[in-house]
Structure formats: structure tokens, C-alpha cells
Amino acid sequence: MTILRLALRNIIGTGIRAWLNALIISIGLVAATWNQGLVSGMDEQAAQASQAIEYGGGQFWHERYDPYDPLTLEDAHAPLPPALQELVDNKKATAILVVQGSIYPHGRMRSLLLKGIDPGQGILNFATASLADNAAAELPILIGERMARAIGLTSGEVITLRWREPRGAFNAQDATVTHIMKTTVSTIDNNQVWLPLAKLQAMARLPGQATLVVLAPGTPPPGSLPGWIFRDSDYLMRDLRELVKTKSYGRVVFLIIFLSLGMLAIFDTQVLAIFRRRREIGTLVALGFTRGQVIRLFTLEGALHGVLAVILGALYGLPLLWLQARAGFAVPAGTEDMGISIGERIYPVYSAGLTFSIILIAMVVTTIVSIMPTRRIARLKPTDALRGRMS
Q1: Which domain holds residue 205?
Q2: I want to staple 25 with a disulfide (CB 3.0 to 4.6 A). Which of 197, 262, 316, 391 is the partner?
Q3: Same domain assignment for residues 69 and 173
Q4: Across the chain, which distance is largest between two alpha carbons, in Å?
Q5: Beta bridge partners of residue 287, listed in sequence order
Q6: Beta partners for 329?
Q7: How far apart are CA 161 and CA 298, in angstroms?
Q8: The predicted structure's pLDDT at residue 215
Q9: Residue 343: exposed, middle, or buried by beta-carbon count in 10 A (0-12, 13-18, 19+)?
Q10: Which of 231, 256, 272 marks a domain boundary?
């Protein structure tokens, strides 16, 4: 307790210098916490949007289906097994047929995917009902806002679709854009056109067939089904997790930079304190303090800067972080085309574990940095210290 009281007195005696050091460290703590919360919020928001709009409670894929290889689509379809058909009939799953095709907007050609889905499904949360609402259109289609912007289409416009039938013949038909949807999930938007499932099955001469089946959240998947592979949420969101993991490396660098600025200030303060307080060190040793006690005193003084930083950071950081979590962070223009399932704003997510881990790291690093300059005290002779010498 004597060392603690002495350390507190010395910290208070340094005046504004102690508060400036604490302010630098606190800025690093608040900035690092905000950065970590921002990435965590982006991860959580993207995962929720992907599950609600695209992945559902998991998907059954045809064994030949590969979303990254369009050449597999020609054979990646089959009639639904009875177990999957029962789920679809009970509205616990929805079937999707994927066919490779082309579109001809304004005299130009663009390759894309034609996707058929039941307009009345309630599994995936996007505007498939618009495919049934417009009965006047012989072939209604649904496209995303990014797709519409890329090819210059507007709602109500008529365009030509072309696709290949199973026997190799090409066919074409005019279609009407009944709705342009705005979605945060670019993977159901870019280079994709959505049609009523029955229409696409008839056009492609694949009655009753599908490429994949999306289960409703909470629906247990049936057992092993020949010709079909179950993909759970972990598998489907693997790419998203890897992307967030890559971004997490950047936030670690961000944390290191801010902590380094604060630690540099602590190190300089400790070196200056040992140099200017040579006589005090000699007096303490002469009064009976061991070198170990003197080292602990200076180490404790440095560590107390971290305590002050936590208190100071809490005073202005908690309101700022709370307001940021409520208001969100506006996403810059163009981010939506990067394949990240996020909306117009990101809402940071701060957990107790995240906050305490950052504080713990700061306290440990502050203590270590405080110890480093005190090694000279172990080699200091009391007589030299009393004379004001550092040998």
C-alpha cells in the first residue's frame, strides 16, 4: 500500500503530463473498440441478411451443381425426391431452378442466370410476390437494382430472354420487368433474372425439376438423399466468414498502431522520470527501499497511466460509441458492388468480451512498457544516485 500511495502521489504531481499520456492511450482504446465493433457489426449484419434473403436454414444442392462453374448448370437439375417435395408442399422449403441464359437490353447481349422460384414462397425475404401480382405480363421477371442500373432497365420495360433447351436448341421470348428490387445481398442481384418457377420449367422443358432447395430456418434437413447434397449455413457463409476474417487482420494492425502511439508516450515518460528523479531514487534506496521495490514503484506509476486512460476513455468513449451504435455508419458509395451483404448503414456491435479484451491488452502492454526503462535502476548505485549520477 505504501508503494501504491507513493505512486499515486507521483502521478498527481506530474500534472497535465499524466493526463496527456492518459488521453493518448484512451483515444487508442476508443478508436480500437469502435473499429472492432464496426467489423463485428458488418459481420453480423451480413450474416443475418444472407440467411434471410438467400440461404435460409440451409440448402440442398443437386450433386452436379457448382455456383462458381456455369458449365455445370446444363446437368445440374433433377426432379425433387419425395422428402424434399413434401417440405415444399408444406411451405417449409422452396425449390429454385437455375438455367444459363442471355438477355438483350437495347440491342446488346449480356450473359446471365435465369432463376425460377415460386412467387408465393415465404422462405426467402425478397420480392418474389411481384412475379404473381402482374398477371398482364405473359412472362414477368424480377431483377435487382444493381442489375437494372448496369444494363439500363426500368420497371415495365420489355426485353428479350434467350436460353438453351436440354436437346441443345436455343429458344427466346420477350419478358416484362415487373419489379426492380433493392437488396443488400448482391449475390441474388448481379447478372440474375428471377422468373416464376413453373414458367421457367416449361420454357426449359424441365417439368418438376430444380437445381437447389432452400429450407426454412429451423427446419431439420431430411436424411441422406441420393443425388442431393445438403449445405448448412456454415458452409454457405464460408466465403463471407473468410472475407470478414481478412478484414480482421486490418483491425489488428489498426489496434497495434494506436496502442503503439500511447506506449511510446509512456516509454518516454518513464525514461524522463528515471533521469530527472535520480536523487529521489537514491534517497529511497538509502531509506531502506530495495531495488525491486523501486522498480515496482516506477512500473506501477506507468501502469496507472493505463488505469487513467480507461477511466478517461469511459467518460467520453461510452457516449460516443453508444451514439454510433444507434445512428450507424454510412456505407460509402460503391461498397455494395464488392459482394458484401450490408445495407446503406453499418451498425457497430460492441460486446463485453470485446471491450474487456482491448482493455486487458492495453493494461498488459502498458505495464510491460513501464518495466523496460526501469532496468537501469537495477544497475544504479545508491551513492551515485544521491549525487545525481546515472552510471
Answers
A1: 58-231
A2: 262
A3: yes
A4: 101
A5: none
A6: 346
A7: 77
A8: 93
A9: middle
A10: 231
DSSP character at residue 171 = E
Q: Do 121 and 19 sit in the same domain of this protein?
A: no
Q: What does the alpha-carbon distance between residue 319 and residue 92 come to, in Å, rounded to a whole number? A: 44
Question: Into how many domains does the chain fold?
Answer: 2
C-alpha cell of residue 385:
544516485
- Cα separation values, 125 from 46, 56, 156, 318, Å: 14, 9, 22, 35
- Averaged in consecutive runs of 10 residues, what is the pLDDT profile of the chain (391 residues)? 71 73 80 80 80 88 89 88 92 93 86 91 88 73 86 86 82 89 83 91 91 91 89 84 69 70 69 67 70 75 79 87 81 54 72 79 76 64 56 53
| Alpha-carbon 272 to chain mean position | 43
Q: Which three cell numbers stand for residue 173?
A: 421470348
Q: Any bridge partners for residue 158, and if so which?
A: 176
Q: Which grid cell sits at 46?
A: 451480413
Residues near 80 by beta carbon (within 8 Å), at least 6 away in sequence = 88, 95, 208, 209, 210, 213
User: Does 62 share its domain with 170?
Assistant: yes
In this structure, are 220 and 95 located in the same domain?
yes
Residues 12 and 83 in one domain: no
Which of 213, 231, 249 lies at the terminal end of a domain, its last residue? 231
3-state secondary structure at position 214: strand
Alpha helices in the chain (DSSP H): 2-13, 16-50, 82-89, 130-133, 145-151, 197-203, 233-236, 238-276, 278-286, 291-327, 352-371, 375-378, 382-386
Phi and psi dihedrals of 329, rounded to 5? -125, 120
Contacts of 219 (CB under 8 A, 6+ apart): 57, 87, 92, 93
Burial label for 332, CB within 10 Å (0-12, 13-18, 19+), is exposed
Q: What are phi and psi of 53, to 5 degrees?
A: -105, -25
Q: What is the DSSP letter of 81?
A: P
pTM: 0.71
Judgement on whether residues 31 and 92 belong to the same structural domain of the protein: no
Q: How far apart are the C-alpha atoms of 87 and 117, rounded to whole Å?
A: 15
- Same domain (yes/no): 63, 16: no
Instruction: List, in sequence order, every residue forming a beta bridge with 330; answer none if it has no partner.
Output: 345
